[in-house]
Amino acid sequence: MILRPILRWGFVTTGSVVAILGYLGLANLQLTLNGSDSLPDTAYVQWRWPDTIWKGAIVAVPPPAVFGDRLSGASVVKRVAGLPGDVIQHNDGKVCVLPECFAPEMREGKPFAPLLQEGVIPEGRIAIFGDAPDSFDSRYASFGLIPMDQVEAVGVALDGFPHWTRIAAWLGTAR
């Protein structure tokens, strides 16, 4: 007789916790698919709250103004390499946020765009980079440092997730 009310409250409590966690997950989590070669992984699980940003985190930000309307409605996804107070240096033609250095895309022996200036990353800004040598990111002045309040989501790589083109093929939506 006593076991039945305990089980009932156990199910109610467990169901309530699952419902609350499910709501928080749906409201604050997102699956971001990588549509370029700028980062090595194909998908990232990201959350919109709390928005703690750390070196190595994968962030989604609105496209900087240099993109114009070409990426309207999309996000740029890059890895955080520089936080406020970190020093940006140039070393052998590379943009460095120690201990990492990022080589620019070269065209006719010169970087295809002016490099980010050397100096300290100011409060409220971050430097974000892709891992591919042709990634358009904070190594270039026209992309620049990103205001932290523009970070839409922060997260980590989701290992083993298939590339978006394979998912599109499975769904029959590949072109």
Automatic annotation (TrEMBL):
The protein's UniProt keywords, in alphabetical order, are:
Membrane, Plasmid, Transmembrane, Transmembrane helix
Cite the InterPro entries for this sequence: LexA/Signal_pep-like_sf, Peptidase_S26
Q: Which GO terms describe its biological process?
A: signal peptide processing
Q: Where are the transmembrane segments?
A: 6-26
Q: Domain Peptidase S26 spans what residues?
A: 11-153
GO molecular function: any one?
A: serine-type endopeptidase activity
Q: What is this protein called?
A: S26 family signal peptidase
- Source organism per entry reads Gemmobacter fulvus
